[in-house]
Design brief:
This protein is α/β, with parallel strands linked by helices. It has a single domain (about 5-105, about 120-125, about 145-245), classed as Rossmann fold (3-Layer(aba) Sandwich), CATH 3.40.50.720. The chain is built from seven helices and nine strands. Helix 3 (about 75-95) links the parallel strand 4 and strand 5 (about 100-105). The longest helix is centred in the middle third of the chain and has 21 residues, at about 75-95. It starts with a strand and ends in a 10-residue tail after the last helix. The relative contact order is 0.14.
């Protein structure tokens, strides 16, 4: 049985993945908050500590989900949770000889394409344009830090893959709603850009499991898009399917 360490295990994505993998993998769960998961080790990954580094021993794959999920804070509010944590997790994985790290990147690494119609397909070789835009009081606001930090995290992963020979998969995760996450739960007024990057719980869990199990051949570092099989979306998931054997089952349009 493979041993899989999940950071952010008590969060939205972590809970969904833990429930999916439970009983089929030897799970080691880390988070700053335990919640109602008695088996979660409480650690602050933003602060380097040899005590929690020991949890990375004898681990086959790390799934790094721990982060501040709010895409709107300024740089200063994301430095520890979304940058220091990334560096520390990759360092711990390298020190303990972890074979593979799956890094939760984000669609926000390409967020500025929301208002740019070209190219028609967003592949993982399309030049990145990080950004997040929201409508508040009728005004569109754009911020860069969240998406930029996710992009930087991808490049940190590449550096560790090159230096230590570990396999790193950076998944640009689409839109996974908190709690219940069915297409029917999406508000009708939600912008098409967000609707079409929807990722169902079933497809999210399948994607992460394929990241754990797939034979990457000679590939040491890869960036993949992570969306459901949504009709009409600009996000290209052909490479995700080919590299990982990802087979999304859900479509936001039914």
């Amino acid at each position: 049985m493979k041993r899989v360490l999940i950071t952010g295990a008590a969060g939205n994505l972590g809970r969904k993945l833990t429930n999916h993998l439970q009983g089929r993998y030897d799970l080691r769960l880390l988070d700053r908050k335990i919640g109602d998961y008695a088996e979660v080790y409480r650690v602050d990954l933003a602060l380097w500590d040899p005590t929690w580094v020991q949890y990375f021993s004898d681990v086959d794959t790390v799934v790094h989900l721990a982060a501040n999920p709010n895409p709107m804070p300024p740089w200063a509010e994301l430095l520890e949770s979304n940058m220091d944590t990334v560096v520390n997790v990759f360092n711990a994985a390298a020190q303990k000889g972890v074979k593979r790290v799956i890094y939760a990147s984000s669609n926000h690494a390409m967020g500025q394409y929301k208002d740019i119609p070209e190219p028609a397909r967003l592949t993982t070789t399309t030049p990145p344009r990080p950004g997040t835009s929201v409508i508040r009081n009728g005004e569109e606001l754009t911020t860069l830090p969240y998406g930029a930090m996710k992009l930087i995290g991808e490049r940190i992963g590449k550096g560790f893959a090159d230096a230590y020979g570990m396999e790193v998969i950076a998944v640009r995760i689409g839109w996974v709603q908190f709690g219940t996450n069915h297409a029917s739960d999406i508000p009708a007024e939600r912008e098409e850009w967000y609707r079409l990057m929807w990722l169902s719980d079933r497809d999210f869990c399948n994607l992460m499991e394929r990241g754990i199990e797939a034979d990457l051949g000679n590939t040491r570092f890869a960036v993949v898009n992570g969306m459901s099989n949504n009709t009409g979306m600009r996000w290209d998931i052909d490479y995700t399917k080919a590299l990982l054997g990802y087979a999304p089952q859900d479509n936001v349009k039914g």
